[in-house]
Write a structure and sequence with these properties.
single chain; alpha/beta; two-stranded antiparallel sheet; 17 helices; 11% strand; 11 strands; Rossmann fold; Arc Repressor Mutant, subunit A; 382 residues
């Protein structure tokens, strides 16, 4: 039986709240044969959104197969292509004979092979027999459409942590080939979902370099409403006979900027701290415990910052927006407007802040923002 507050895995069903409009948008796009890209900070619900969306689609009678390509460990073209192909083979076949048949029929004239001995010892369904060339790349990228045609079932490919594609050697050329593959395969038999938790890196790929122009649809995840989160958490506490004041819970939502992952983790800690009414003291103790869990990560993040970068972060937390103004440059000792541009780029590359359409800065992680204010800069708590 799952606990009331789940923060350690993607959720669906009764444990999934909010984002109904986004679920509808993604489902409609995929149903219409469109590709989707979602880039939001880590632990903001991208996988839960996709899990619930696919569940809704299956309940409505849609028949399809999903293949998730994990890219966290990808650093080379070969690693990506093997991860890509392995996910597809496993999604559409179940036995070694079927794996071998797919490679033989759908990856013929390539250097990809199914090695039964390797599979028996390592469980790997794909390996390479020689150095890969462009023909191998094109053939593998086109594999999902060939498999969909063979199986007669639509395939949705989820490329998780897609920003890691920039680690590939000559990654720009690779993405050009990927674009050409999408253009050549517009049958609707397969669609791609690009997920990324490095927001600025994904912006660089899809907005600055404009790869996959008019080939993907960007779906933005809006905040889950505070009232809905509060209702969910209150109900969760009631299942174990505990009570929390709704106004207190609303203040928790504000503290975590409605990040349901942090809130679920926070609520789980509270649930273990008391047997009855959840007080202000309980909330503060739970917050201190949550901070202690994440503080090593936050310390490592700021330890890598230069003095100028720390100053720009301080300016961001102080609510400054026009960093290049003479007043801000002098107040925070930012040296020059040219230096400000370099500092903004540096903090974006470290995925600490991002900038909106009006060039307004935002700290990506709400708990890091709280920690930086209270413990690093020792600013007055808002």
């Amino acid at each position: 039986m799952d606990p009331a507050f789940i923060y350690f895995k993607p959720v669906s069903g009764k444990n999934n709240i909010g984002r109904r409009s986004e679920q509808t948008v993604v489902a409609n796009l995929l149903d219409q044969g469109e590709n989707v890209v979602i880039y939001e900070p880590a632990k903001t619900g991208k996988k839960s959104l996709m899990q619930q969306t696919f569940l809704n689609m299956r309940i409505s009678g849609k028949i399809f197969t999903t293949a998730e390509v994990p890219m966290l460990q990808v650093r080379t073209t070969e690693e990506f292509l093997l991860a890509f192909g392995s996910a597809l083979v496993r999604a559409t076949a179940t036995t070694p004979d079927e794996y071998a048949e797919i490679v033989r029929n759908c990856l013929q004239d390539t250097h990809f092979v199914f090695d039964p001995n390797l599979y028996a010892t390592t469980d790997e369904v794909l390996s390479v027999s020689w150095s890969l060339d462009e023909n191998d790349i094109r053939s593998m990228l086109g594999l999902p459409w060939r498999l969909a045609a063979v199986t007669g079932k639509k395939i949705y490919v989820i490329l998780d942590e897609f920003q890691n594609i920039t680690y590939l050697e000559n990654w720009e050329r690779f993405l050009k080939i990927f674009e050409e593959t999408l253009k050549a395969n517009q049958s609707g038999l397969c669609n791609l979902v690009f997920l990324g938790s490095a927001v600025n890196a994904m912006k660089y790929i899809f907005e600055e370099r404009v790869f996959f122009h008019r080939q993907v649809n960007h779906v933005v995840l809006n905040d889950i409403e505070s009232r809905e989160i509060t209702d969910f958490i209150v109900r969760g506490f009631l299942t174990s006979g505990k009570v929390i004041d709704r106004d207190l819970m609303m203040s928790v939502c504000k503290r975590f900027r409605n990040n349901i992952w942090y809130i679920n983790h926070f609520a789980s800690i509270c649930d273990h701290l008391t047997k009855g009414y959840i007080t202000d003291a309980t909330l503060q103790e739970a917050l201190d415990m949550l901070i202690s869990i994440h503080e090593p990560r936050f310390k490592e993040l700021v330890a890598d910052l230069t003095g100028f970068q720390v100053s720009l972060l301080k300016a961001t937390l102080d609510g400054c927006k026009r960093f290049s103004s003479a007043e801000v440059i002098e107040r925070y000792n930012l040296h020059s407007s040219a230096n400000v541009r370099r500092l903004k780029d540096a903090l974006c590359k470290k995925e600490i802040i991002t900038f909106g359409e009006n060039d307004e800065p935002r700290v990506l992680d709400p708990l890091f923002e709280y920690w930086a204010r209270k413990y690093f800069f020792k600013m007055k708590d808002e």
